[in-house]
Amino acid sequence: MSSDEDTGIGFIENRPFDEINVGDTAELSRTLTAQDIDAFAAVSGDVNPAHVDEAFAQEDIFHKVVAHGMWGGALISNVLGTQLPGPGTIYLDQTLKFLKPVGIGDTVTVRVAVTEKQPENKHVTLDCICTTGDGKPVITGQAVVIAPDKKVKRPRMAMPDLVLHHRGASYDRLLSAAQKMAPLPTAVVHPCDESALEGALSARDLGLLEPVLVGPRSRIQHAADEAGLDIGGLEIIDTPHSHASAERAVHLARDGRVKALMKGALHTDEVMSAVVSKANGLRSERRMSHVYVMDVPTYSKPLLITDAAINIAPDLQTKADMVQNAIDLARAIGIETPKVAILSAVETITPRLQSTVEAGALCKMADRGQITGGMLDGPLAFDNAVSMHAVTTKGIKSEVAGQADILVAPDLEAGNMIAKQLMYLAGAEAAGIVLGAQVPIMLTSRADDRRTRIASAAIAVLYDHSVR
Q1: CB 311 within 8 Å of CB 394
Q2: CA 291 to CA 433: how far, in whole Å?
Q3: Does an H or E element contain 262, and which?
Q4: Nearest Cα to Cα of residue 244 among 287, 190, 204
C-alpha cells in the first residue's frame, strides 16, 4: 500500500474511462490479522466457527483459523474503488474462484488488470487475482464496472479508530478458572426479586455457588413463581424482613455454615450494617473495602478500582488496607504482581493536596513491607495510570504508569465517578465485591445483568480459594 494509504493523509484520485488502457494494472497488499477476521465477522454477521473459533478450526479441514473468502473479495473492491478506476466507479458484476485459504499472518497481494473497454457504455472488464507470499493464487476472478467519466481528486478520508472487544471475555476466563474449584456455600441475602434469584440460580447451575436463600419464605416463593424460576431443592431460611435477613446471613457466616454473602433485593447499607457490627458482625483485623473488577473495552486487561462503595474519606491506614485487599484479589484472579496506581490530580507530592502525600506514604509502606504482593507508584493522575501515550508524552519513568492493574481512588466520590464513567461512556462491565471481612461479600446491584452477577460469583470463589 502507498504511504498515503498507510497514514490516512494525501489524496485519492481516479482514472476516468478515457485515461484507461487495456493492460493497465493496479494492486495493493494486506497482511491478514486476527483483528481483520473479527472485524469482518462483526460487520457481516458471519460467525462461522472456521473463522472465529480456534478450537473448532484446529479440527476442521484446514487445521487453523482462516479468513472469510469475501475478505479477499473486499480487497478487490478496495482496488477497484480507490485506484483503478477509482472514485466514481460503479460495480456491475464480479466472479470469484477461491483456490486456497488465507491464514493469519499471510500477506495477500491483490492485482487487477484491464482486459476490455466498451466505449458505448463505458464498461471496463478487469481480471482480478489475489496471491500470497509464495506467488500462488488464492482467489481469481473477473470484474465488470462502469468507469467514471470525470476526473476526481479528493482528500483521503482518515478512518475512525476501530476498537474490537469481545464482551465478557475477561469474565469468561475468570468463570473457567472458578469452575475448577468446589462450589462456594453462599447466603443470598433477601432474594425477593427476579434478578437476585436468577443470579443465584445461574451461579449454582454453573457450579460456582451453593446458595442458601435467606429471607421471607413467602416473598421468595412469590418472586420465583412470578419469574418462572424453580427454587425446589434450595435451602430457605425464613426471616420476617430485610434487616433480619442480613443479620441471619451474617450469623450463618460467623458459624461457618456459609463462606460468602451475596446481596439480594435490599439496600447495601442494610447488609453492611450487619456485617460491620462490632458485637455480631464479620470484622477482621483489616478494614473492609470495595473493589470493582472491570472489563473495559479500551483497556487490554482487567482493571480493578477501589474504593467506590464503602469508605467515603479513607485515611492513610484505611487506604493501606484498601490497597492490600485489592492486591490480594488481583493475585487471586491470576495477576501475579499487580501494578497499583495511587491516584491524585498530579504526579508530584504537594503538601496542600493530601492525596499526593498519602500516595507517597503508601509507596514507602510498600518499600518497608507493610503492603505486600504488588508494585506501587503514586501519585499518578488517571491518564498517566492507564495510558502509555500520556506517560511517554510527559516523560514519566515508572514500572506502573500507563499499565496499572489497580487504581486506588483518593476517596469514594472519585472512585465511584471513575467506575461509572467507564461503565456508561466506555461500555465497561463491573463486578463488585467487598473484601476485608471474614468472608467475601458480593454487592450485586439491580442494574447488574446475568453475566456481571456470575462474574461476581466467580471472583468470590477464586478469592476464597486463594485465602484458604
Answers
A1: no
A2: 6
A3: strand 260-263
A4: 190
Kindly state the DSSP code that residue 159 receives in the 8-state scheme: P
Q: How many helices (H) and strands (E) does the chain have?
A: 16, 18
Spatial contact of 37 and 51, defined as CB atoms under 8 Å apart:
yes
pLDDT of residue 446: 72
For every residue of 194-247, DSSP letters joined together read HHHHHHHHHHHHTTSEEEEEEE-HHHHHHHHHHHT---TT-EEEE-SSHHHHHH
Contact 186, 261 (CB under 8 A): yes
* Sheet strand arrangement including 107-118: 25-31, 107-118, 123-131, 137-146, 90-98
Across the range 94-111, mean pLDDT stands at 96
pTM for the structure as a whole: 0.78
State the average pLDDT for the chain: 93
Residues paired with residue 406 on neighbouring β-strands, in sequence order: 304, 340
Region 261-275: mean pLDDT is 93
Q: Is the pLDDT of residue 104 over 70?
A: yes
The order of strands in the sheet holding 289-295 is 235-238, 209-215, 184-189, 260-263, 441-442, 429-435, 289-295, 303-306, 406-408, 339-343, 375-380
Tell me the pairing of strands 153-155 and 107-118: unpaired
